[in-house]
Amino acid sequence: MIDYSWLLVIIAYCIGSICSAIVVCRVMGLPDPREQGSGNPGATNVMRFGGKKAAAITLLGDLFKGLLPVLVGQFVGLPSVFVAGLGAAAFLGHLYPIFFGFKGGKGVATSVGVLLGFSWQLGILVIATWLLVYKLSKISSLSALIASVLSSGFAWWLGMSEAIIYASLMMTVFLLWRHQANIKRLLAGQEK
Q1: What CA–CA distance (Å, rounded) separates 38 from 76?
Q2: d(Cα 147, Cα 125) in Å, to the nearest integer?
Q3: What is the pLDDT of residues 79-91, one digit of tens each?
Q4: For the chain, first and last CA: distance in Å?
Q5: Structural domain boundaries of the chain?
Q6: What is the Cβ-side half-sphere exposure of residue 113, based on CA atoms within 13 angstroms?
Q7: Which distant-in-sequence residues (6+ apart) come within 8 Å of 5 by Cβ?
Q8: Is the four-CA dihedral 189, 38, 123, 90 of positive or negative sign?
Q9: Using the 8-state DSSP alphabet, how is residue 107 labeled?
């Protein structure tokens, strides 16, 4: 019998590589998000020039492409390590999309989708953390970074597998890396 697990990981990466921001902007007749605002193809940047509707659709698209591969992996009964691999692959596809010259977004919404797929409780804890920090600070990047940093701790607290905890930690490392400019502005008190 052929093992299709690795094929699913490749498919997960390809799903992650579909850039929701670019697709939404093309369909809605908006400018390319890579050439507007911050240049980041993500929901926050799309909202700057495309409005709330375009941003919401982008956010849901990015979230769904992280969620779908994980749910498929669980549905077909893959071991936890492969389910974690599917989530990681979708996330990395968003950051380094094969269809867009390996230049993607920062990965916040896609990581939340992956975490929701791992466990709805884990996803809710991360979303609640983001909302709480945003309510207190009104800074989206700070909210995302704190929620991400706590995600692997939440996964451990919920008793999830090591593979899931490590996948959460890996996503946090990449999110911190992709938010270097935001972190510098936060430290300088200049982040909007």
Answers
A1: 39
A2: 8
A3: 999 999 999 999 9
A4: 54
A5: 5-188
A6: 30
A7: 78, 82
A8: negative
A9: -
